[in-house]
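Box 3.1 A note on notation
Throughout this textbook, protein chains are presented in two layers. The first layer is the amino acid sequence; the second is a token string describing backbone geometry. Keep the layers aligned when reading.
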Amino acid sequence: MLAVLAQRRTWFAVAVIGGLLLMALWPDTLDVDVAQVTRGALVVTIDEEGRTRVRDRFVVSSPVTGRVLRIALEPGDRVARGAVLARVRPEAPALLDARTRAEAEAAADGARAALGRARAEEERAAAALAQAERELARSRRLVDAGVLPAQEADLRGTDAQLAREALEAAAFAVRAVAAELARVDARLAPVPRRPAGAPVAVTAPVDGIVLRRLRESESLVPAGEPLVEIGDLAELEIVVDLLSTDAARIREGARAEIDLGGQALTADALVRRIEPSGFTKLSALGVEEQRVNVILDMPGPAGGEDVALGDAYRVDVRIVVWEAADVVRVPTSALVREGEQWAVFVVDGGRARRTLVEIGRQNGRDAEVLAGPAAGARVVIHPGDALRDGSRVREEELAS
């Protein structure tokens, strides 16, 4: 009886130890997030920040040197073509002081003397040319009579050509000295008196909005000084500077989507021009990058009634480089490397099966499946290091 009880205890102990070992060695069930492989549209874009820019910008400058009166227009004011933007009262040029006038008079005397010498040189060159032409004519007659060889006539012809060129040089010298004399005399000319209180009106060349007021207070400005900048906010374009490698993937006429201020407000745009020349720009990390400006047109109003875009506003741009209406898609977060290939974990019968997949185009969210799981298959999202081929899993399906 005691032997039977001892044997039963032994078998019970063996069963308990075996159960514990089985529990220890039994594979754990992993909780995983899954999503479906779907079929639908796939759009590949290049995302970058851009800025708006008025397409036709007009910088209105002062036509004369003078004192610009205070400009009352404010940035944002609408102006019509021909409207007065500013008024400039012309200022007489500064009078010459005694020293400057004496220097100018001395320069004028020197220029007159130089002009007389240049004209004398011109007369001498004219006389030399006349003599050379007479010698040439005489030599030709003697050559025709057989008195002189033909070489003598050639030498006289060369002398006449040199004399003719010397006369032309002397004439140019006279013109140069005469121009210098006119410049000096202009400094000494009396200043014409302008009627007082006759400012020049600076008008708008087109209809538009004042973008910037470059001068506000009354001040003295030279001719050509910018005063006001105007443009039409209804004609906006968007400038995006892309990496040259990304710009090479874009074609003119490509579709783009503009995010207007991050309030779920978007607008469509088209790529109008890709500039042929790039430029170097430092990134935020201090790395030199080759960038290219891409210009986009917005076919509709800039932002509509909900968003009013202006000049040099920041927008988010997504330029489409490839799109297809019907492809098999897998989330990029499900992809793992398998050597030189890609793989996904397909959930089948409570287990994760590692499956090779050939992918094509991809964006930041989905990838095109060229070969691999079909639409409807469930794949593990963000597979961890503990997940192996054949692991037991418990699904928690994510909303697509």
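The chain has a mean pLDDT of 83. The radius of gyration is 44 Å.
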